[in-house]
Amino acid sequence: MVWNEPGKNGKDPWESGEHSPDLERLVRNIQHRLQALFGGRRPGRNGMSATALLWTLPVLAVVWVASGLFTVAAGDRSVVFVLGRAGAIMQPGLHWHAPWPIGSQVTVSGVDQGRDYAHLYNQLVTQDGSVVMVAAQVHYQIADIRNYLFKVSAPGADATGSRVLFEALADSSIRTAVARSTLADMLGSGRDRAETEAHDLLQAALQQNDAGIAVTRLVFQRVDVPGVVASAYADVRKAQQDSRQLQDNAQVYANRVVAEAKGTSDADVTEAGAYRVTRTSEAQADVARFDQILDAYRA
């Protein structure tokens, strides 16, 4: 409501026309004290400046206290600071902290659902000196909010240092795992082993640095040969396929020749055995006839 309304002849609507001397003296004393405290203008007889100030101070106090209200979204967490020291970790919902400059809060998003780090490595060298292109994706979660916020980053910061450290360690782990694998491994079944090795290297490095981060999944979404060597590698793969085909053909021929030779050998052995039996029988018959002739000759 305004103090001077039309038709009121500029009078204070709260004035009754009669004033108590004690009340007026009390108001004037309050006005003088407020004037001395805040350095304001000398108030008029109607006490407008003092009354406005008396209403303004509680409103400002209420606004200051209400400025400490904040909401933590689902899946997020918030760390409350009091005089620069980290305090409680707030769960999702409506909360209050001591207003500035006494208190503050920092919200960490994506704590429950985790975060993804994806990167394309255009040229990674394998153990056998080949060059591959790897598209990797790492899914991780914040396991320790205090370490994530303050171990690497400055207190109260947005954990930029932790993210930079995580990306650097992820790049190093992936490069190391690829460098310990051959090109055939990266393009074949050995990719799973390289992913597991990169995951283990990254998790060990994060634990060593107390980064407060846990790796839940690391995958190589795509592994390919860069375009500059794709044609040469295609020739190499074709030569490898031709070599395998020749080896298979040679093995088939060897198996057939060995089988034929074995069959011929078995036939010869069988024929020789039959010939031996025949000659032995004939010799035994000749010996029997000779014995008969010898007996007759002696008689």
Keywords, separated by commas or semicolons:
single chain; 3-stranded antiparallel beta sheet; 299 residues; 7 helices; 53% helix; rod-shaped; alpha+beta; 8 strands
Sequence-ordered SSE layout with sheet pairings:
Layout: H1 21-38, H2 48-66, E1 69-72, E2 77-82, E3 85-90, E4 93-96, E5 103-108, E6 115-125, E7 131-142, H3 145-150, H4 160-179, H5 183-187, H6 191-208, E8 213-224, H7 227-298
Antiparallel strand pairs: 1-4, 2-3, 2-5, 6-7, 7-8
Report low-confidence residues grouped into runs of 5 or more.
1-20, 42-46
Largest sheet: number of strands, sense, barrel closure: 3 strands, antiparallel
Mean pLDDT rating: 78
- Distance from first to last alpha carbon: 171 Å
Helix content: 40-55%
Total number of beta strands? 8
The general outline is rod-shaped
Residues in β-strands, percent? 15-25%
Q: Over all CA atoms, what is the radius of gyration?
A: 49 Å
Class derived from helix and strand content: alpha+beta
SSE string: HHEEEEEEEHHHHEH
- Please tally the helical runs, counting DSSP H or I stretches of 4 or more residues: 7
How is the largest sheet built, in terms of strand order? 3-2-5
